[in-house]
Amino acid sequence: MPVDPLHSAARSPRSAPSPLTGGTGTGAVEVRRSARRRRTVSAYREADRTVVLIPARMSEAEEQRWVRVMLDKLAAQESRRMLGDTELAERAGRLSEQYLGGRARPATVRWVTNQNTRWGSCTPAEGSIRLSHRLQGMPEYVVDYVLLHELSHLLVPGHGPDFWRLLDAYPRTERARGYLEGVAASDRLPHLPAARSE
């Protein structure tokens, strides 16, 4: 039976978090400082809080400025993503028709930002499908594979032979699985230091 890369995306190790800080209308904000992080700042939503990753050397003033910048950036991304959910649902409908005879009919299909260890998930009882925001920007055939994977779970909940037979209809299954396995492996590798600028 194939290994399922959709439910094993790697989460890279992070340093210990600093205390939680309240954000205006955004829930809790957790700032995590890392000595390995040199210049970049990133943020993501995790359950009911926002996690902001910053270099350890930043001052408190820089931290506060970057928290505001990243909260604004996440809000803008989420606003744009609202439209993307409609397109994602339409795409799922087309894929169901093409590869599953239209039998998989999700009630909802949406992007989520709190799924950092899975590429996608499905709740068959509710008919809901969620795709990780980490898939955005990946090749279309990879996103289509993840959608088909989750659509197939609406018909067959487990990962038995019947499930994999459904996915055999999609010609890029193995290629997409290889792509996702490569991304997950890359996330687990220690990152090389940036090249020194002369």
From TrEMBL:
It holds the Pfam family YgjP-like. It comes from the Bacteria. Residues 108-180 form the YgjP-like metallopeptidase domain. Residues 1-34 are annotated as: Disordered. Residues 8-19 have a biased composition (Low complexity). Transmembrane segments: none annotated. The keyword ATP-binding does not apply. One of its GO terms (molecular function) is hydrolase activity. The keyword Hydrolase applies. This is Metal-dependent hydrolase. It comes from Streptomyces albireticuli. The lineage of its organism: Bacteria, Bacillati, Actinomycetota, Actinomycetes, Kitasatosporales.
